[in-house]
Amino acid sequence: MVNIFKSTHRFNLICLSKLTRLSNRMNSTECNSKIFDRRKIRNFSIVAHVDHGKSTLADRLLELTGVIKASTENAQVLDQLQVEKERGITVKAVTASLNYTFKNELYLLNLIDTPGHVDFSNEVVRSVTACQGVILLVDANEGIQAQTVAVHSLAKRNNLIIIPTLNKVDLPRADPDNVKSQLNSLFNIDPDTVLSISAKKGWGVKELLEAVITRIPPPDVNPTGYFKAHIIDTWHDKYRGVLCLAYIHSGTVEIGQEVKWQSNPKQHTVKYLALLRPGEEPINKATAGQVVMVGLGPKGGGSVGDHLLSIEATDIDQTNNAQPIKHMVYAGIFPADQSQHIFLSDAIKKLALNDSAVSVNVDSSPALGQGWRVGFLGLLHLDVFTQRLLQEYKAEAILTAPSVPYKIKLKGSKIIKHYKSEEVIITNPLQLPDSKHIEEYYEPFVMGTIITPVEFIGAVTTLCVDRRGTPLPSSAVDEKMTMMQFILPLSEVVIDFHDTLKSITSGFASFDYQDYGFHPSALVRMDILINGTLVEELSTIVHTSRLEYNARRLTEKLKEMIPRQMVQVAIQAVVSGKVYARETLKAYRKDVTAKLYGGDVTRRKKLLKQQAEGKKKMRSVANIKIPRNTFIDVLKR
Fold this sequence. Notes:
Elements: H1 2-32, E1 41-48, H2 54-64, H3 82-87, E2 94-102, E3 105-113, H4 121-128, E4 133-139, H5 146-157, E5 161-167, H6 176-187, E6 195-196, H7 205-215, E7 228-237, E8 241-250, E9 252-254, E10 258-261, E11 264-269, E12 272-276, E13 280-282, E14 285-287, E15 291-295, E16 307-310, E17 329-335, H8 341-354, E18 359-365, E19 369-376, H9 379-393, E20 397-399, E21 406-410, H10 413-419, E22 423-426, E23 438-453, H11 457-466, E24 470-476, E25 481-489, H12 490-493, H13 497-504, E26 510-520, E27 523-530, E28 533-534, E29 540-543, H14 547-561, E30 569-575, E31 578-585, H15 601-621, H16 628-635
Parallel strand pairs: 1-3, 1-4, 4-5, 5-6
Antiparallel strand pairs: 2-3, 7-8, 7-16, 8-15, 9-14, 10-11, 10-16, 12-13, 12-15, 17-19, 17-20, 18-19, 21-22, 21-23, 23-25, 23-26, 24-25, 27-28, 27-29, 27-30, 30-31
Helix pairs in contact: 8-9
């Protein structure tokens, strides 16, 4: 009887699974065969701090709507990049259009799973422009973290409906009541409106999905106007060219329709149209309120932030409400071999199309050859970009040490005329003019938010003050946690600040930062001289308080890296002609008297004198050649 019961139960589960998939196929067919009523469309994102369970919740939503089967193999389905699977983080915001029947009505739910790390905040900003609401996910064990504060502020600025949700309530250490109290204290969120789920086990996910339908309004769009859509993402397809992810503001679009870009009046034909589920599902027509993939062919073009319009549109709004991207870190990217320059250039262009947060400018170096100066939002962004270059395009690149942008105020009419502006942004130390032409230096600062247990307040304060930070008023999150804020120089944050913070707080503190603009600072350009000759590639911009430390560290590293020469090599760190650190690399020693077997001492003195004169002459004419590999070892991070 037991075996019969088990067989019957298994049969019922299989039948239910087949019926669910059949129903979803019928729903998809119905959805694609008609213009979807905007009142039945919901566009929403999942936003949270790192590791609070966004991708796991997305998996449960895909299972609940029948997109994927419930299986241990289907984990983090929307994290499609290899780097995402290896690092266990979300790098790209991914859209999935889901069908769900609620109260006998078919709804189209456009879900966008967003990254949680501050280095990929641009993905979150672009995603919320196509949403009317967000699921604010908070770990019931960890409570509110620094990025939670940032994404809540972003949602409020965009006037989005927020559905506060506690995740991981099934874990033994979970404290939902305390986290609800934190939400109420910091964000004034009513505890009764907070949902509790376990994304891993699927508890409460159905209720959350229904809350999305009931709480989030349909998109406020115009279905009858001319076609207008804005691009929230782009990527390159080998055969179809540039593909765009578009949010339709008004009108409809269909295969074969003539359209144009706001930035370029040239007409194009819509050749590809699809919903992402998350795989492509071709459709013939889409209406206002939907998020769809649009392709205009290999020469169709497209860029993030641009608008796609019907050819009848004449009253084009040229204003761009998007905030300009402020790059926090710059680094040089050079091909490992100059014969690979064209291949690497093509790979960088294609990857930059998919990652609109980077800026790419041509650069060159006497030691490393032709390359690019690339701007990133942070060090993790830099790491992921170079890893994607290697994994997705098999392009090997040399990465120089990262630096932050600085601003200078010039003096002197000739210099100002040469730079075409009184204030200049410097992304490369080689661009810095002589100090006599600079009236004032400006350094980028950020406002850092740190949420830490109260027992680590002293250690965190010491760390921030040592990094030239200025404290701001702090506030209590609850009895155990406090939120501290500091104004910090960006150069002190981007290198190892986060790792040090995690170390001194046993991993409990979280950190997020926002741009705080440029402020006057005591900066100097430090040059490296090799036997009196300037090596431009090794010049850096440093704060005067860190000058001696950086000078000593760099000269010591160079002494280890530069191979010994036939002559003595002097390595000096110099600022405005003053030497702040020096290391001497001894020359190879040759015993010219080894072959002497006797005779007068004058023979020995004669040989030593000839050697000394030869070395003196060699030092005066010698060109110290530093191998390219040495530059790579010194300049890389």
